[in-house]
């Protein structure tokens, strides 16, 4: 198989010598801001509550909001303002709370205006050449207002700094109407209040992806507010983008309504204007307390956040060609943004019951895109973050379950609110992986109880039928084929935890459920298929068909037929053995899609045949050649994927990053191994893409990967050693990494067809016990 052009360029022997240095300095937050990456370029602290970033357009309705899911799209010509909440790479849009925009001059427009008509509103044109982005900091020059805008963020605060042109009248527009999921009626209610000391507080209650979401804020400025106007613009008529009459006087100290916008006047300033904003999901008092919890001006907050980022990013040092270092460093940065802080400085948090609760001894986190991130994002964080961070994630999930109106763990949660997006109960493998890795600070018995409660909740996603039939019937529940195999994997992780904790009966019950994937596997076609309650497979059957609401979730039979991570050996046997499995894997990657049209499916991106790297169900598939005894084929496919799906440019992600999962895949793959089966304690070996990388582990040890003779020509693994001893198996264990040491790959031009091919040298499978 020929190497892709990009990988060849990155690893060519004629390339400049490999470089190393600060991982922080190698990060480029602009990667993923174009195409379908859905990342944002603005400021955030590691796992911070505030994501302060420019929004280029919030006017898109539901039908086309997908492309603006992160608020910023690299190809847009204007910036509408800077809002304080964003998802990093989500496949859905929401947030964009509390938008602030500086305005110069005597006239202050209260409407954003038309991007195609300069001067029609408060939005401004900008030039990418004036942008600067690094972890925790973003700056740009707003061409129309001639304002140099800078933003940074702390843990629960965002800080703006605006340099107005000399002699210009300085104003801010504070718009509570805008949203990244914009449709009529989203803003249920909002409020603004000017306090005697100049602090402004307010709130928004919205219905969107998460229903009835409440968010509060507190804002202070470095210069006194000399004039203001609060307007409820509901029903107001804009004339050429400028404000028409609102409802009543606009200079009142308080106002509430469904379409609030504020004008804040500062006169002519002799120094830059700093604006500090804190958020809370609890109440305005919580927002004020959060504001007070992080003292300091713009430079102080920026310096503190830079120190946090340097410490977090120093957990991984990289040596390799500059373009690849840039991609991998940025990917690592993207894995450290979510899950996000969602609890206040005093420990209070709002839960899925929409009530306020108190966390004790940990910080409550939310923004859990679990269908995506259980695969590689969370396993990566167990290696690069302190155990207390993983414990906080687990405790947040378990405490959410305890107050859930339905008694189940989060599915896709943000700011404590449930969206019910995607399938499975994938908080379970996240919790299980942490327990099985002996992460301290977790009440394992309480966690297991929450896991079982979710797995046994019959009304959710056809689980009642799953427990009755051993599969989800398609005539009773949509996306049934996908749900069956995903439930079976989650059940296996419950069995593993139950066994570890000594609950033998529970372990047996869920081990049996872990085999339910067999009930949806059709030996006649070799695909996982949807079955009717009668037991018959649904017909007609087309393994390439992708239709939302049908047999599969954001995919088809080609992708989902490989999702048996807990027992790949049994799947290989069901497919007819090693040779048949390799032929089917090749058929998937080499499939001719020329006659297929997937334009109706948003998340189907990054196709290599029927392999879809832009969406998660395919992410482990290239590693499955290892399970079939041909690891050199995994090495070939990984080169194909890395070369075609990642590049160090704004459109450098083939699909949306999904809160770090696309990025975590690249980080692991560049290191030479990947967690195909979280909960197994193993990482499957692929091939390295970096010359050298070192993990600074939370326990104080260091684990180094070294790739000798790596080049475009030497793309195959010749041999592997761990701490100087030959490694014959195609896996490395979590305990091996935590012990510290060195993993050395010796690369060569031709495949090694003997290394790690014996059944005993292959990765874990439930049925083989390997």
UniProtKB/TrEMBL annotation:
Its EC number is 3.2.1.-. The keyword rRNA-binding does not apply. GO terms for molecular function: hydrolase activity, acting on glycosyl bonds. Pfam families: Glyco_hydro_92, Glyco_hydro_92N. It is an enzyme of class 3 (hydrolase). Keywords: Glycosidase, Hydrolase, Signal. Residues 287-748 form the Glycosyl hydrolase family domain. Residues 27-280 form the Glycosyl hydrolase family 92 N-terminal domain. InterPro entries: 6-hairpin_glycosidase_sf, GH-type_carb-bd, GH92_a_mannosidase_put, GH92_N, Glyco_hydro_92, PNGase. Residues 1-19 form the signal peptide. PANTHER family: PEPTIDE N-GLYCANASE PNGASE -RELATED, SECRETED PROTEIN. This is GH92 family glycosyl hydrolase. It comes from Sphingomonas morindae.
